[in-house]
């Protein structure tokens, strides 16, 4: 069976949470990995069934009412998850930010295209940082969550870098952002 990142997302969430329905997986993803790993939520309904058919998840269904299906990790599923975690990551780091795509094509817009885009992105990244801060304030003192909070720390750093970039663009245009890049490149070589 070909396991995808969505497969491991489902296996990992169930591994952390314990037995879960697709709806519970969706809610858990929205409050955790959804901040840094966007994916179609419809996969949280089809993927668990596929993993159950492969023996990686056990499935139980309510006999009455909504007949909700709950999935739990099997030994085979736990081993597949552990094997995936042991593999070093060699893929290219990806950021899919539509604002970057718009910036790339901005010369086809009007004179205010870049400014409007920068204003919106500065507001967006400030909002994300505030949201991340609320999450850190709420969960930061719980020792058992330290590893799960590590991606949040990385997210804060990415947001800070993005905010700095868009602030440079807003304050001095693209030339200012390019000049700042030179300063950063020099700092990296020191």
From TrEMBL:
Source domain of life: Bacteria
Transcription regulator PadR C-terminal domain location: 95-166
Boundaries of every Transcription regulator PadR N-terminal domain copy: 10-83
InterPro entries assigned: Tscrpt_reg_PadR_C, Tscrpt_reg_PadR_N, WH-like_DNA-bd_sf, WH_DNA-bd_sf
PANTHER family per record: TRANSCRIPTION REGULATOR, PADR-LIKE FAMILY, TRANSCRIPTIONAL REGULATOR YQJI
Stated name of the protein: PadR family transcriptional regulator
Organism the protein comes from: Spongiactinospora gelatinilytica
Organism phylogeny: Bacteria, Bacillati, Actinomycetota, Actinomycetes, Streptosporangiales
């Amino acid at each position: 069976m070909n396991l995808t990142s969505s497969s491991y997302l489902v296996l990992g969430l169930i591994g952390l949470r314990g037995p879960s329905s697709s709806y519970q997986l969706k809610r858990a993803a929205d409050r955790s990995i959804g901040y840094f790993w966007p994916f179609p939520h419809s996969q949280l309904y089809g993927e668990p069934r596929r993993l159950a058919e492969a023996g990686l998840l056990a499935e139980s269904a309510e006999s009455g009412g909504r007949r909700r299906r709950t999935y739990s990790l099997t030994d085979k599923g736990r081993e597949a998850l552990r094997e995936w975690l042991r593999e070093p990551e060699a893929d290219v780091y990806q950021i899919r930010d539509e604002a970057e795509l718009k910036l790339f094509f901005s010369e086809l817009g009007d004179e205010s295209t870049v400014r409007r885009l920068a204003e919106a992105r500065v507001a967006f990244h400030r909002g994300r940082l505030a949201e991340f801060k609320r999450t850190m304030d709420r969960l930061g003192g719980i020792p058992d969550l330290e590893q799960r909070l590590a991606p949040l720390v990385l997210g804060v750093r990415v947001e800070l870098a993005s905010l700095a970039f868009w602030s440079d663009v807003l304050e001095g245009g693209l030339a200012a952002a390019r000049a700042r890049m030179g300063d950063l490149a020099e700092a990296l070589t020191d």
